[in-house]
Each structure stands twice: as structure tokens, then as C-alpha cells.
Sequence to fold (450 residues):
Amino acid sequence: MHEPKTYFIRTYGCQMNELDTEIMAGGLQKKGLTPAADEESADLLIFNTCSIRDLAERKVMGKLGRMGRAHKRHQIIGVTGCMAMAKKESLFRKFPHLDFVIGTNNITDLGPVLDEVLYTNKQIVKTDDRFEENLDYLVAQRDNKIKAFVSIIRGCDKFCTYCVVPYTRGSEVSRPPASIVEECQKLVDAGYKEITLLGQNVNSYGKDQPEWNCLFHDLLYQLDKIPGMERIRFMTSHPIDITRELMEAIRDLPSLCEFVHFPIQAGSSRILKKMHRIYTKEQYLEKVDMLRAIVPDVSLGTDIIVGFPTETEAEFQETCDVLKQIRYSLAFIFAYSPRKGTPAMRWKDDIPEEVKLDRLQRLTAIQDEISNEERARMLGNTYEVLVERFNKDGKMLKGRTRCWKKVIFEGEESLIGSVQKIKVHSFSHETLIGERVGKRQQLLTLSNSI
Ligand code: SAH
Ligand code: SF4
Ligand code: F3S
Fold:
């Protein structure tokens, strides 16, 4: 095996994995490696994996199996991320061609692990249970030059009974506020227009460090003060920790976008209790009412799991009713997938796959109708759109409103990175189509003066 010169990282899973990939890429570039064009030609190939549902794991396992058969001796192959934490060294038994396994709390060890692999020619595993706050976030190599993810808290202490994350990401560790402010300041100075604060539960921020005296909303007030900060978003929040102070921050801070991912998971209080979500349907609805009273134009997103063990048709109907009542602008709907090591494994996965699929389709149809109605209501209105890039067709520009709606419109490349006022005139599927308000006015003035 020789010293790798190029790398390729394949990322699965959520935004936290995307950011970890950017940090690993930065570390590798600092070591002198350059990005490879594809998996095959890379000297170092890393799979940054996800374990959230069975399908997420199966995708990588299938790939690793196929690669084993065609393994090129010169290539170094490693697995990082949540599946690395869930499976640890057992991955070596299944895939003897793997060179290393690095868990979510050890990405700083990537350099030394690579050296060890080269030096000893042995398989190396590093999967600490706890995250030590020594990660150099500032090395992150971001492809996107307008929007950036910034980690504020790692891990999760909620232990929902279906979820692997508390085991794959460990307990909550908040990042010092000064370090977050420094990174955000640098990003704004470098021209970034939108920062998404990341954590499995961002509104637990600071609770593990009471001496900092800085909870999530306090951090938001600090970040909003950064001169030139255009937009702040956050992902994701647990309903129990969404406080009045956070709601007021959304109302009062100019840069904080009016979109809250507010995942209910299920509409029946019995199922919520079994999921250990620590709120009832009624408590959840009360919170949504409070948020809408404080921020009337807020948009809400949610995650839902259908077919949780013992979920009856009537309980599923409660979830349908909640969707119709709340009218989320975005819903991610999943079929329950039993995960090894989670408390829900002690219950039989008793809802047949076809019933889960049927519930998933029925709920998706309800949400599609709501989303369409909501888009129809936006017609004729003007929204602030942060212009991100050309749309896939290469002709129209693409951006998002503060409430996370995708908008396309005609315009020049020079508008990328700016905020434009766009009047929406139609929509196709999930995309709103509009035109620049300024441009129309300019044309009108021009034609009047001729
Ligand atoms: N911290 C986030 C969730 C991250 S996981 C939160 O609490 O909102 C993203 C979503 O995956 C969860 O909200 C849940 O809806 C879904 N999910 C998690 N475990 C699952 C499982 N075992 N089966 C199906 N969906 C699951
Ligand atoms: Fe998983 Fe629940 Fe933590 Fe979200 S809050 S990451 S669903 S344990
Ligand atoms: Fe997957 Fe881990 Fe994210 S399990 S969803 S990559 S936290």
C-alpha cells in the first residue's frame, strides 16, 4: 500500500454527515491530498454512513460487498459515520478488504488512523463513545459558497425508543459559543449568505454547560448581531425544547428565518408515549398554537413515522387528522424500521410491510394536497428569495424563500448570492415559478419613457 494522493468521500444520511464529510475533506486536503474525480480512481475511499433505517444501511452494505469482489489492492477503504458506530469492528469480519472504521466521535483521528494503516498494514478501528471538543471545524471544505452548515451541538440525550442516534452519536456535547460565533463571522466575511445551525436537537444547546449561561436563543441573539449575517436557519428541534424565548427570537431577529422543523412523529398520545417523545398530542398542539400566536407567518415542517409497533388504524387516523389540522408546509414521512440496540426492538414489528406502505402512501397524499393548496395560496405574492444557482435546466435561477420554498425565475448569473424580490405567478410540482419585481418595474419605466 502506498501513501494516498487522492480521496473520494461518499456521504449518506443527514446534514450532520454532510458537514462531517466537509470537515474530513478539509483535514485530508491539509495533509496534501486532492479530491478524486470518482470512487474508482481514488487512492483513499471513505463511506460516511447512516444507520437511521434499514435501507440506509443496506445501501452501503451492498456496495461494500460488491467492492470486495473487485477490490484493488492499492486502494485504502474506510467506513465512518453512524454505521461505523453501530457495527464497529464486526465490519471487518464481513468486509475483509476494509482498512479502517472510524466512529462519529473520532473524525479528528482520520489523519493518524491513515498513517497507522499505512505503517502497520493492519485494520484499525476507533469508535469512542464520547465526543471530545477538539474538532477543528474551521478546516471544513465546503463546495457550496452561499450556504453553510455549522455544528453547534453533537449527540442526542432524548432516547426515543425507535432511534439509533443516541447510540451512534453519543450524548449531547455543546460547542462553545465563542467558537461558533468565530466560525459564523468567518463565513459571513467569506461571503456566505445563509447559515444552518446543526444538531440532532439544537434547542438543547447549552443545557449540558450551565456555567456558559448561553442557551439556544441566547446563541441566536449573538449570531444575529454579526454584521452582514443575512439568514440563519436551524435543524432539528425537539418539540419539548421549543421555548417561548425561541419563538420570540424567531419573531424579533431579522436574520432568523420563519421556518421551524417541529417533528411530531405520530398523532396518537399512546404511540407518542411508547415512542418516548415526552409530550402528548395535546401538549404538542398547544405549543404550535403558541408559536403561531407569536409568529403568525411561520411555516412548519415535520417528521412522521407510520407503522410503529401496535399502531392501530384509528391511531393512524389521528396522525392524518393532525396533518390536516396543522397544515405543515413540509412533511418527511417514514415507515417504521426496527433498529438493533433500540428499546423498540423488544416489541414485535407487528405492522405488516404492506400496511406500513399503505399508510405511508395515504399520508403522503394528504400532505401533497395540503402543500399544493399552500403553494396555490402563494400565487400573486412577492417573496424574498436567496438566489443559490441555476436550476437543473441551466436556464432559470433557483433560490429559496425564508420559509424554505423553492422558487425559480429568469435572471442573470450575477444575481447568484443576492436576495431578490420575486413575485410568484405559477408552480409546477414542488417548485414555485416567478419573476423579479425590480425587473418588471424597470421595463415598465423604460417603455413609458420611449
Ligand atoms: N433529531 C431529529 C431526528 C433525526 S432522525 C428529531 O428528533 O427530529 C430523522 C427522522 O428519521 C426522525 O425524525 C424520524 O422520523 C425518522 N426515524 C428515526 N428512526 C427511525 C426508525 N427506526 N424507523 C423509521 N424512521 C425513523
Ligand atoms: Fe432520535 Fe429522538 Fe434524538 Fe431525534 S430526538 S435524534 S428521533 S432520539
Ligand atoms: Fe443517519 Fe446518523 Fe444522521 S443515523 S440520519 S447519519 S445522525
